[in-house]
UniProtKB/TrEMBL annotation:
GO cellular component, one term: membrane
Domain Histidine kinase/HSP90-like ATPase: 265-361
Keywords noted in UniProt: Kinase, Membrane, Transferase, Transmembrane, Transmembrane helix
Molecular function terms from GO: phosphorelay sensor kinase activity
One Pfam entry name: His_kinase
TM regions (residue ranges): 28-46, 58-76, 83-103, 123-143
Protein name: Histidine kinase
Amino acid sequence: MADAAAIFSKTNPVLTSRPRRWLPSPRRIALVVVAAALVAVLFIPLTKNTYLELFGETLFVGMALLLAFQGAGATNPKKVPRWVAQVVGVAVAAVLAPLFVQLFTAGGSFERFIGSHSHVRGYVLVTLVAMVIGLLVALGSLYREREAEAESQALQIALLRETLERQATDARLQLLTAQIQPHFLLNTLANVQELVESGSPRAVPLFRSLIAYLRAAMPHLQQGDATLADEEQLVRAYLELMQMRMPDRLAFSVEIDPALRTMRFPPMALLTLVENAIHHGVDPHVDASRVEVRAGPGEGGVLRIAVIDTGVGMSEKASEGTGLTNLRARMRAFFGETARLELSEHSPRGLRAELVIPQPA
């Protein structure tokens, strides 16, 4: 769960909430300038001031509203929601900013401001306009911020779900691999034990082959990411080991398209098919048999990896074992639902087990 926890951690550069800025963005400042210019035009018929005076007053009030909104949004109040602090901040600025402007034009005298009908009228007019426009813009901005936060949370949830699904798939692959590995190793050791107990002269070279095989196989038992070249190496070593056990009854060939050797492949998946061919096809057959391993592109944009044996064939197999059942699940988990395992009779005798997987892009 470490990857999932990192999604919401403070160190995640993508999904961590961006810090609230005290200073407004250039885009918002530009919008305030344009709005102040338009409002100043509307005030011309209502006052005797020049356009530049009106523009200066409305721009000052607009910037005060913007700073109040931005500053309240940058705070982190504990007792009230942030949007409430922003609305209250805009309302307070809409009252105080026009008052400061009128006091400035009245020479700083509050008595002169109160006694001037034009100053009071201008204050009330600007305050009402600032209150209405400021609150409407603030609410609209808050609505857009809520939508942006909802989209960000949706992306976080989607990424978390994808991460958890990937972790679940990896865990399932590890479980299925763990089920297959003991099965394979125990069968191999049982075959070696037969030769040792029978006193066969091939016991010593067989042990050497087994040790060489285990040296190649053990690193792949723990890793979760293997290639088809790794599988080819294991399959060759395994077939050589089995050929030493029954030299008169087993021949084999391995033909892997060189272009496919670097392809990611589930560890020991191909080996499962080869082992199945040996123990359920070649071993029960009294005559000489052959195992062929082929891998290459097929029709319809798929890759076909086949293990063909000339053993007893499908008719003497009552049902699939744990190895093939797990292999089907591993292939779907690794390559997707379109990956499949096909079993068919091989002419004149034997079994063809073929993995059909989508061709990687």
